[in-house]
Design goal:
The complex is a heterodimer of chains A (368) and B (139).
Chain A lengths: L1 E4 L6 H7 L6 E2 L2 E2 L5 E6 H28 L9 H12 L6 E7 L7 E6 L6 H15 L9 H9 L7 E6 L4 H16 L3 E6 L4 E2 L4 E2 L8 E5 L2 H4 L14 E3 L4 H5 L3 H8 L9 E2 L9 E5 L9 E3 L12 E5 L5 E2 L2 E10 L2 E10 L9 E3 L1 E4 L1
Chain B lengths: L54 E7 L2 H7 L6 E2 L15 E2 L3 E2 L18 E7 L4 H9 L1
Antiparallel strand pairs in B: 1-3, 1-4, 1-5, 2-3
The chains are: A alpha+beta (368), B alpha+beta (139).
Chain lengths: 368, 139
Amino acid sequence: MRRQACTPRVDWQARLQAQGFDFHTIDGEPYWREDICYVFGAREIDEIEAATNELHALCMEAVDRVVRDGRYEDLGLDARAAALVERSWWDREPALYGRMDLVYDGSAPPRLLEYNADTPTALFEASVAQWYWLQDVAPEADQFNAIHEALVERWRMLPPSSHVHFAACYDSSEDALTADYLIDTCLQAGHRVTALDVEQVGWSGRDFIDMDNRPIDRLFKLYPWEWMLAEPFAMHLQGSPLRWIEPAWKMVLSNKAVLPLLWEFFPGHPNLLPASRRRGDLEGPVVRKPCWGREGAGVIVLQQGESESATSERCIYQAFSPLPSYEGRHALVGSWVVGDTAVGIGLREDEGLITRNTSCFVPHRFEG
Amino acid sequence: MGELKKPDGPRMPRRPDAQFRPLRDQPQKKSNAVPLLMLGGAALVGLTALGRGHDVQRNRYGSLEECVHDYSTGQCELDNPVGSSGGGGVGMHYYGPWYRGDRGGGTSDPGPGRSGPHAVEFGTRGGFGSSGRVFARAS
């Protein structure tokens, strides 16, 4: 695994914008970079792929144990959330996708930092932008990126010609692009779609309805479950027949409190880092993470013995495993799961140790 | 590409419920194609006259005839909840279009005439999305 200088495409901004990717530069700072790329060996890609599949299997088993043993308090989920999780799990409501964040340097096994299982971001960059980049600069090269084909195929799990609604915060350009791209893949799978803003979802007294006042049967939401549960329409969730994508059981995995449970269920697993709700259970430096934090917010690194500031947020602690550094940039592997299968990766890098929403996305290829 | 070497004997999962997921058989790990049909042109239904976050209501009638007396045929729909067979029957009702209502008596009922509905059904929008607005302002 190495970081390599590249020559940007002459008209790279125009190419990205033509695809709908207009936030390649944010406030004058690059978000998408193609003056550099990451290069992996085939063995390393195989290792990431296998680790992701293994971790996903562990996570699915963890959800099953949580539901069977009622471990909701460990996750901070109340009875209402627990009921939604259980119903969706026992009904085998299917999941579409998720993104695991892994620490990997090419030598030690990939290890899970967190699983963005509900509303993962950077999908378009990983699936589309970096694929077209490779086609333009090195069409003969390979890339671990079968995300697009996997998404289209995964949508076919639904009955033919299903009507799928999509709800997102369309004021956000990133959310809008992610939702529009998923709509595109859903259409390519042969389904009908209707898009609306999250705030436009209505309640008729019996059903969630769209802007045509039609009951919504199946809704893909780019909106976190924990936000929905804190909002006025949460009272209608239990009684509604609407089938959500991602399903409610994903709340177990998108919650960082699953990390201590994974360590409890599978202690010493080579793809996991030690984690606990209590700092004293861990040795050495640790990372404190809010259970429902987003984009690195509230994440702090604590050296052994270092005092920590008080927080009202529910947090967990994970053993500190620093991201590999290349020329002062720390690289994070985002590994995508569609359905139950690892299908591709996207790399993000930052000057700091914590990857945030301002961290850059960098394309990759592999050889060998 | 070299010949794939298979292990001797049956492959045993480490856990009884483990599922074997073979690595891709294709010679490459990237998508063969990434076509985009309509990106950026999604049929996002913009704000209608109902707007966001407003209470809305619609009139309920016992028959299509009663509903059409207040509205046009195209504006009346049969009660057809998700999962139903869609057919008429006991307990089914007809509804006029949604209109903005404030539950305090002020309305914008688009009906040309009012024969008097059996009831008014209330609905709302904007019950999801407020956390997203807060997060966007803070980020």
